[in-house]
Amino acid sequence: MTATGTGLPPAWQPGDVPAAMVDLLYRQSNAVLFANFVIALPVVYVLRPSVPLPMLAGWMAAVYLLTTLRIGLSRRYFRRDGSTPPQVWARRFMVLSWLSSLLWGAVGSAILLPPEPQLVAFCCIVLAGMSSGAIPSLSAHPATYRGSVAAMLLPFTIYCLVQQGPVYGVYAGFAACLLCVNIYYSQVTYRALRDGVTLRFENVALIGELERERDRVTAADRAKTRFLAAAGHDLRQPVYAIGLQAASLLTLGERGDVAGGQAHAIGHRLQATLARMDNLLDGLLDASRLDAGVMPVRRQPLHLARLLAELRDEYAEQACQRGSVLRVVPARAWIDSDPDLLKRILDNLVANALRHAPRASILVGARRRGDAMEIQVIDTGPGIAAAQQSRVFDEYAQVPGLAMAGDDQAGAKGLGLGLAIVRRLAALLGHQVGLRSAPGRGCVFSVRVPLAAAAAQVHPATPAIPAAAGEPLCVMLVDDDAQVLGALTELLSLWGHVVYGGRTVAAVRAAYRAASQDGPAPVHLILADYRLAEGLTGIAAVGMLRASLGRAVPALIVTGDTAPDRLQALHDSGFPVLHKPIQGEALRAALHRAVQLAEAA
């Protein structure tokens, strides 16, 4: 932002208070220059009968000459090119001001002033007016004013001291007091001017900051508008596919000849569609977890070759479907990171390459960089222009060209969150993320991970508890959505579980009491939605049901919330949390895992 764009005079650079004070010195000097021209005339007129005319004429010519030089200096200052420092301009002004003040001081000295009481009184008035009137004009530069007022008043003070008579003593005392008072008020004026300039700079800086914040908010608002439009499209696509597949099932059911193979194929397509929706919503969930600060970090030594092999196995088929060639180069190294978060980073990088570089070659490997390994995802896609590279890691960013390249039948272009999550997860882990690219030459995304000390330091992993799908459970289920409650009850019953369900805690208690009348009714697990009717949370519902049972029954909380404050509350509760939408097998495993973990504890 230039000085002229901030509302400041052109000479002022934001934050340069000394330069601004010099600028004020020149801008406020017009009154002093005008006084030099005008007041010289009555001085000559009054002194003419007592002072030789040649001497007065020479004095007046010198005053006008110096004033003309000062006017010329001011014109040069306002036409300057900026190469001369402000301090030089201040010194030039100060020297000419001192010389001019010496000429006025000569009026009150024995050079021009005869020892006549009326003329002494006249000169005292003139010098008092000139010295006091210069305070607003010259106080922006204290040295200029102090030298000028001393040059005007000291000769008159000395002149009065050497004269005989009490009146001259009064004049001398008056001049000395005036000198001290004027210097004091000049300093007060200087501080006021300096504070005003400083405050103005602060206001300009604040305005600039507010403008930048306004631009940032406007850009964020536009980005979120684009994001919501993309989200609406990308979420409608799988919902549309689910509707078509559900219609197919209904049609087959109406015909009454549902073949097992057909039903299984439609169910498989439904699961694939839901998995696609999961990927979209997982990006939102990761962003919200990072915003809430509830993304746990569990660093440990990792075998890089094993991690890269997982990537190859997971994405090989997807790459083949997109017409891409995925090649993973094994790397025998141990690195220090969080396995889940690093896997999420690499998932996003590989998925980004598959999405934006269809029918291209993708290479995943690692290089040794000092005491770290740089894991690279290299593609031969369209590449990214240098001007766009700073934006690719921003949230909701859709880089022109890439969206078109990746918009094929295999999937949507995404929500613009993947690389933003990569950047934030890497920052959380202390890893360095890099990008090298050029249009038409593909991209190299990299993440630098420190090496682990030694493979022997790997801590043995806690053995996973198997999710025994054959063991029936008795589940208290509370969800205020009737459709979700019905679907969950039906699914859990198909799995062989006993469900005491209801839309409220009271309804669940009633269902449990009804079941208890027919015999023993154990409760192995409480499954509660987080957001219930009348402002009740699933956490509170679990507490109420546990109080009714008189024991701490294992519990699972299900939520579709992604607000950071709610994620923080769920994290603080200590309950296992399932985020909607939940795949059937994931729900089945989570139910048994929660029960078995409670039994193991």
UniProtKB/TrEMBL annotation:
Q: Which reaction does it catalyse?
A: ATP + protein L-histidine = ADP + protein N-phospho-L-histidine
- In Pfam terms, one family for this protein is Response_reg
Q: Which UniProt keywords apply?
A: Kinase, Membrane, Phosphoprotein, Transferase, Transmembrane, Transmembrane helix
CDD domains hit by this protein: HisKA (cd00082), REC (cd00156)
One CC-aspect GO term: plasma membrane
Domain Histidine kinase: residue ranges: 230-453
EC assignment: the record states 2.7.13.3
Q: Name one GO molecular function term.
A: histidine phosphotransfer kinase activity
Provide the Response regulatory domain boundaries.
474-595
Q: Which InterPro entries match?
A: CheY-like_superfamily (IPR011006), HATPase_C_sf (IPR036890), HATPase_dom (IPR003594), His_kinase_dom (IPR005467), HisK_dim/P_dom (IPR003661), HisK_dim/P_sf (IPR036097), Sig_transdc_His_kin-like_C (IPR004358), Sig_transdc_resp-reg_receiver (IPR001789)
Extract the coiled-coil ranges from the record: none
| Residues spanning the membrane | 31-47, 53-73, 93-113, 119-138, 168-185
Keyword Transmembrane helix tagged: yes
- Residues bearing 4-aspartylphosphate are D529
Tell me the PANTHER family matching this sequence: HISTIDINE KINASE, TWO-COMPONENT HISTIDINE PROTEIN KINASE
The protein's name: histidine kinase
